[in-house]
Design a protein that fits this description.
The structure is a homodimer of 308-residue chains. The first copy, chain A, is α/β, with parallel strands linked by helices and 308 residues long. Chain A has 2 domains: 174 residues, Rossmann fold (3-Layer(aba) Sandwich), CATH 3.40.50.720; 120 residues, N-(1-d-carboxylethyl)-l-norvaline Dehydrogenase, domain 2 (Orthogonal Bundle), CATH 1.10.1040.10. Helix content of chain A is 45%, strand content 19%. The first copy, chain A, has 12 helices and 10 strands. In chain A, strands 1, 2, 3, 4, 5, 6, 7, 8, 9 and 10 form a 10-stranded mixed sheet that branches. In chain A, helix 4 links the parallel strand 7 and strand 8. The radius of gyration of chain A is 19 Å and the shape is globular. Chains A and B meet through helix 6, helix 8, helix 10 and helix 12 of A and helix 6, helix 8, helix 10 and helix 12 of B.
Chain lengths: 308, 308
């Protein structure tokens, strides 16, 4: 399959490399890594085994990438203003587009531009970061849950899941993509939000009983917002919270991506992880007050440290 | 009048110095400043005029301070575990006690130990900090609103207000001390809380529209918690918010005390400013969810900065 990767951060590079190794024809839209990958190819380090791809097709513009069968989007969502424009040349043929971006609102942008029947989305559970140009480090996990923007378990969704599975990424096709996205937010909103705001790792939040209680309160808010969306199968609140708390204990001393972004002075993915969920919940009558507070405070411009 | 100052931080030293200058007999319970004040007296710098007191009675223990007519408490509220024990020797005679501490719960502690009829409280609006040992810097303002723990506008409250006024501190006796304390919290909770948590000054919170909206939402929560207490004259929500926002603009680049405490690595007054109000509101059926979240996060143990 001819696959374009748009947004070649850690996620795009890692999944693209696996898909190419599995025999697909990959074309990467690159920025930082363009020269390095043209010269030396792409190196992946992983607990599952390191590997190197000698010949990798990298491009500086999507207009040069030609026709593909599938566009995989890994763009950071604060760049979503350019998402449609970036994808348009690749969508001129009959390609489908799969966005693996964080949070909510991404399929909607693509569906509006290209028609919902051409859009799929996926929720990626992945620990990975970029190394020096031309290399990406897979830290662990990497499973994906993907589905149609329109909903329903289609043959296409099953085929794409099989494509990732064949490349070595556990992948589950889901009938209700929106539900899968909200379910991930039940974790991301409290932990990405509070860790980024307080610059404490997940274990430190859980070790402080009042903050642990606020994590649970935030999960309850998000689950209420989620279930107001009218899923065929609502999230089971107590089971969902129990599972996520247990998983988090298992992570040990963990820094969610938004915390790392803030520590490294990068822009934060606030709209898709906090803003759109707050608005979608509000549209269904659920005021996620704690989430709105986090969203506001994380949006404060960074500044030089203040002295006493 | 014979007056004991218990808790000689900036507030205790400043008001004590003014009361002594006005002809009262002051006795200060001192820790850090004990030796310096014994040797060199007490220096006050102030936009209203600097002055120096040559002879100041300082003590290391309240048991040595003798009988007084009035005990003025300026102790930081995180030391309230020792409040009653500190005051007890001074209350052996017929003294009244006036607590000018921050937040809620202080009169209750004293009233339980010494009887409510001996307790008054006041809300101090003061910018002051300690300089080198033996000196205190008054930055501006300094008015007090004081009243009986039991409520009601008594002759004693009027006399104490006159005492402070004669010393140069504008002082208003109020019939409803609890209302005055809650009213101050309408400012302290959002600004002390958010500035301490985000390490941004008040002007920066107001310049960011979503955070400004959260400041207002926090004020609404506190006003709801306040009015649930059943004051004879409830706080007028919109007028209260408008006044406080206007005052805050007037403060310019301002660091509330809790922010300064955190920047200087001191303990924070979380119980009296956040915890007791949350509990008093909850006891009347008002869940101040944003305040509870701030209270939790500000209570996270400080730690070495985390790296990306």
């Amino acid at each position: 399959m001819r696959i374009a990767i748009v947004g070649s951060g850690a996620l795009g590079l890692y999944y693209g490399a696996l898909l190419q190794r599995a025999g697909n024809e990959l074309r990467f839209l690159l920025r930082r890594d363009l020269d390095a990958i043209a010269r030396r190819g792409l190196t992946v380090t992983s607990p599952n085994g390191d590997f190197h791809l000698d010949r990798v097709q990298g491009f500086a513009r999507t207009a040069e990438m030609g026709e593909v069968d599938l566009v995989v989007v890994g763009l950071k969502t604060f760049d979503n203003l350019h998402l449609v424009e970036l994808c348009r040349p690749l969508m001129a043929g009959g390609a489908a587009v799969l966005t693996l971006q964080n949070g909510l609102g991404n399929e909607e942008l693509l569906a509006e531009a290209f028609g919902p029947e051409r859009v799929l989305g996926g929720v990626a559970f992945l620990g990975a970061n970029r190394g020096e140009p031309g290399s990406v480090h897979h830290l662990g996990k990497g499973h994906i849950r993907l589905g149609e923007a329109k909903g329903g378990l289609t043959p296409r969704a099953r085929e794409l899941a099989a494509l990732f599975a064949a490349a070595g990424v556990p992948c589950e096709p889901v009938a209700d993509l929106a539900r899968a996205r909200w379910e991930k937010l039940v974790w991301n909103i409290p932990f990405n939000g509070l860790c980024a705001l307080t610059l404490r790792t997940t274990d430190r939040l859980l070790a402080h009983a009042p903050t642990r209680a606020e994590v649970v309160a935030l999960m309850h808010e998000v689950i209420a917002g989620a279930n107001a969306q009218g899923f065929a199968e609502p999230l089971d609140r107590d089971r969902c919270v129990a599972e996520m708390m247990e998983q988090t204990v298992g992570l040990g001393v963990y820094k969610p991506s938004t915390m790392i972004d803030r520590l490294e002075g990068r822009q934060l993915e606030l709209g898709s992880i906090f803003g759109v969920p707050v608005e979608k919940a509000a549209a269904r009558g659920v005021d996620m007050v704690r989430v709105r507070l986090l969203w506001a405070l994380l949006g404060l411009p960074e500044a030089a440290p203040v002295r006493a």
